Amino acid sequence: MDKQTYSNDAVASYINAHYIPVRVDNDERPDINERYNQGGWPTTAFLTPEGEILAGATYVPPDEMLRMLEQIDHYYNTNRDEISQRVAEMIYQQEQHNKAHSSGAPADLSGEIVSTVLADMEGRFDSHYGGWVSQGNPTKFPHPDTLDLAIAQAYRSGELFWAEVVSKTLDGMANYGMYDQVAGGFFRYSTDRQWRVPHFEKMLEAHAGLVRNYVSAALALGNERYADVARSAIGYLLSTLSDTEQGGFYGSQDADEEYYALDAAGRKGLAAPFVDTRIYTNWNADMADSALYAAAALDDPALAQHALRTIQRLLAELRASDGAMRHNLDFSGNPQGEGMLTDQASMGHSLLAAYSYTGERTYLDAATRLADWLQANLYDAEHGSFYDRVPEQGETLGRLRYPVKPLAENAHAADFLLRLYHLSGQESYRDMALATLRAFTSEYRSYGYFASGYALAVEHANSEPTHIVIVGDPQATDTRALAQVASGAYQPWKLVQILDPDNEADAALIEQSGYPPSAKATAYVCVGQTCSAPITDTVTLQREISAEV
Length: 549
Prior knowledge:
Layout: H1 9-18, H2 30-36, E1 44-47, E2 53-57, H3 62-78, H4 80-103, H5 112-124, H6 144-157, H7 160-175, E3 189-190, E4 198-199, E5 202-203, H8 204-221, H9 224-240, E6 252-253, H10 257-260, H11 264-267, E7 275-276, E8 279-280, H12 281-298, H13 301-318, E9 328-329, E10 335-336, H14 341-358, H15 361-377, H16 407-424, H17 427-438, H18 452-461, E11 466-471, H19 477-488, E12 494-499, H20 504-513, E13 522-527, E14 530-531, H21 538-547
Parallel strand pairs: 11-12
Antiparallel strand pairs: 1-2, 3-4, 5-6, 6-7, 8-9, 9-10, 11-13, 13-14
Helix pairs in contact: 1-3, 5-18, 6-7, 6-8, 6-18, 7-8, 8-9, 8-12, 12-13, 12-14, 12-19, 14-15, 14-16, 15-16, 16-17, 16-18, 17-18, 19-21
């Protein structure tokens, strides 16, 4: 639209004469996207002075844009009283909807929630090419959370159908146009059912989920090919979407249809598409979380070090004085964006991943501080669940004044709190997680398979994790060997915790749990109150973890 529509003299002149143009970067303001998106990007929204939507579209070519500008300008100037009345009605209806949502009685977290989402996944699965489709729309997105749920179901049930769901989808994405067969890395989505014609942008956000998917599938289905795909994607991330000096992953690489259509020889000597070097908290945290998992599973210590440096950089440069994570570093390295749920939830997961990988309690302490900030600033204690942003003081205009509780981000936050509860023993975190998940029991059905992340969190709330506790010096060779096996093994619901006998807080937990002293690092595989016999070798540990299905 920049090159075609907004560079058109007639369009630009008409906008400048009759409108107040406001440009919003979706990546920097997900809270605005949540309230104004018209079904895709770019979004074109025509607003009243009160910030309500008069009309909207996605991509609009120049001639059509000029017609829309003229028609909407004419309609607004000749129907102001009617529009003002309609805006008042819209505001009232939105406020009533928010009250109804808040007052809905939450139900129990029954197993029906997971089975309902699985049924929608099964019904919408493309049995020919893999992936999930909407009626009449061939576009296919990766859906990492849905793949996570499918992999877990395949592993637990042993049913061939779910193994086929996973393999057909992962094969389709890796073998055809969705994957850059020259430079590596996944494109954003496919415009056709066959995964052959992609939208060529490469997003860090998608890679965070897909790396996890391919590693999990390699372990759960025993397919080494998926591990190779994960390694290739990681190679792309480290070579193109990484700040190798300071730590951190870059946001995206631009779409360039002509460039990506060339083979390796054709691309040689050409400038690669532009890379957005901004550092986004939520995407970096998600990627670091996946990278630590992949590093253990694929024996890649360099990847683990980059992931840990990324988390340390986020803490150093994007954590505000009150403990909340800000949203991104701009091109000049300045922090932007205040207290959004997406950043806190993702950062919480990455901190717990770093704690599990290293055994360093500073990461657990940082996660605890983050959870406390969430409770104090975004949590609706009366109705359960989290708002997506801290309301701005005096916010009266536009849709930003409406409180929003997005399902996916709430599920992610609830899952973080469940993990934190099991690692810290603080029951208040579990209570907050359960209340959050219960708040969506009346509406999750309308999301279909898009509620996969919610279903996973509910599954975790309703069951005990495979909790692998390793007692030993976190830096010792025998401890590290056990920790790598524990962190890199596949279990759909798993936690790893290293307890250092020389650390005062850890020593208290060791004594409380009744683990006997030992000169060697020792692992225990626990489910609920039942733990395995002491394990001191990696082969036995791997076998014990695999037995917990």
